[in-house]
Amino acid sequence: MTGKLSDLLDAFQGVVPSVIATCDREGTPNVTFNSQVYYVDERHVALSCQFFNKTHRNVRENPWATVDIFEPVSLQAWRMRLRFDHIETEGPLFDTMALRIQVIASHTGMTGVFKLRSADVYEVVSIERIEGLSHTVDLDAPVGLPVGKMTELRGLQLVSDRINRCTDLESLLSGTLESLDETFGFSHGMVLVPEGTEGRLVALATRGYGEGGIGAEVRVGEGAIGLAAARRRMIRVGNMGGELRSGRAIRERAEQAGEAVAPEIPLPGLADAQAQLAIPLVVGGRLLGVLALESRDPLQFDDWDEAYLTVVANQIAMGVDRMQTVEDEGEPVPTAPRRVRPEPPARTRRFRYYRSDDCVFVDGEYLVRNVPGKILWKVLAAHARERRLEFTNRELRLDPTLGLPPVKDNLESRLILLRKRLAEKCPDVKLVPVRRGRFALELCCQVEMEEVAAGT
Predict the structure, then answer these.
(1) Do 215 and 297 sit in the same domain of this protein?
(2) pTM value?
């Protein structure tokens, strides 16, 4: 070998498609692009096989192949001479390669059609630099990539200190995203938490998307975020644009052939994201959420980011778990009113609650649903009946009508989502934390309430 595979990891990210050449037993050549060349170790690579194609057949007749890979910034090409070794259809290597393809298949509605059939493992016999292919690239020109990173320990110390200083779940999540942006330039990120029993994740904290990102939903098992939650595994996808174009082309051919395909799943966050990294937040096997980062730069995330952000995600998960187990302070608020404010201004907000699916609309616009919707309706109804303005987490947990599970109920997460949705859609109504385990209802408007019974 004239090169070292581990020094060329950027070339294995698939930003520039790789080219593979094979021959059958008669010597007839076949040259095609390959969607995924995966670094296994210093002596082996694996190629993805989605279809039983000509390449797949050739290497079983003649085990030799040549693959060109390209460094994405300089476009420097490297040629690997390979000898087919074996295929894997299960196990860690297959699962890792399959997840990337499943992400694209999920987004393009091709789950079950566009899938990994095997991971074809090759021995790398030689690798050499191809001269002359990148002579048109000005290697001295700025490429817009980060010029360096803070040392791992220093960066981890700053983010860890930020997490450790947080006293509530909202500041923990938003503070972590802010510190990742300020320290390492991860400017677009979100934390999603499980909501309800329908297998959905809801964005509780976002960075870089404005207020509109709060409340975004992803189904468990769909896309990078949903698959990370379902598999409890980190997922990194680069070159999203190219992969999606390829997936959509295959989808179009499948539709023309009369195959049934599912609707395309829109990407949460950036519509033109080129790289995604999704890390599950897990404690003791329990899924507490997903940390999701994305970028328009296809090379934003690398192996270093995976290792570093896994540590950060573990700290977030432990912090979330700790916040959920903190006992409420103070006794439950009695039913008698504690304080009454003067009559609010004349503006009126009209809330409508649909009991069939626990959806709440305000002024005809969707606000929130499920447990957060039931909490809001309980609070507004208590104020209308008793003029109450203060409530405790404990009384919410003891209310059987809310349907909270007896353990690990994610109540704090649901209150954060409710507060943020109100701030976005109805800022005249606020739920303001008073102290740990206690919050107050603040009204700057008149409230009209209408409940729509199930089945109407």
Answers:
(1) yes
(2) 0.66
